[in-house]
Design brief:
Layout: E1 3-8, E2 13-18, H1 23-30, E3 47-52, E4 55-56, H2 67-72, E5 73-75, E6 80-81, E7 85-89
Parallel strand pairs: 1-7
Antiparallel strand pairs: 1-2, 3-5, 3-7, 4-6
The structure holds FE2/S2 (inorganic) cluster.
FE2/S2 (inorganic) cluster (FES) binds at residues 36-39, 41-46, 64, 75, 77.
């Protein structure tokens, strides 16, 4: 098990997190106000931009992200650190926009 440092840019918050724990679970333990909802990689509420460092997040498990987005955004409910990290909480991938589109009009 390896411990890494996770810094949240712009907040002054820093936690340690092992490569066996999700970043969200450590945030909750430390009382950090990381948003979340589903905790299974679907809703994107827990998204953070990866400013520096690497995370381990199974793309198949982090189903809310495309493969490209998974290189830039961490779903903190799924992601485990693979290096020291700098994350920007509350940054969401472009695909979240797809969830806000108006439904197609029904054919008559
Ligand atoms: S809490 Fe829903 S994707 Fe992480």
């Amino acid at each position: 098990m390896t411990e890494y440092t996770v810094e949240f840019v712009g907040t002054g918050e820093t936690i340690t997190c092992s490569d066996k724990q999700t970043i969200l679970s450590r945030c909750l333990e430390e009382g950090i106000a990381q948003e979340y909802s589903c905790r299974v990689g679907m809703c994107l509420a827990c998204s953070a931009e990866i400013v520096d460092g690497e995370v381990e997040q199974q793309v198949a498990a982090a189903r809310g992200l495309t493969e490209e987005e998974a290189e830039t955004y961490a779903l903190t409910c799924m992601a485990r650190p693979a290096s020291d990290l700098k994350l920007d909480r509350g940054k969401y991938p472009p695909s979240i926009e797809n969830d806000t589109e108006e439904p197609a009009a029904a054919d008559d």
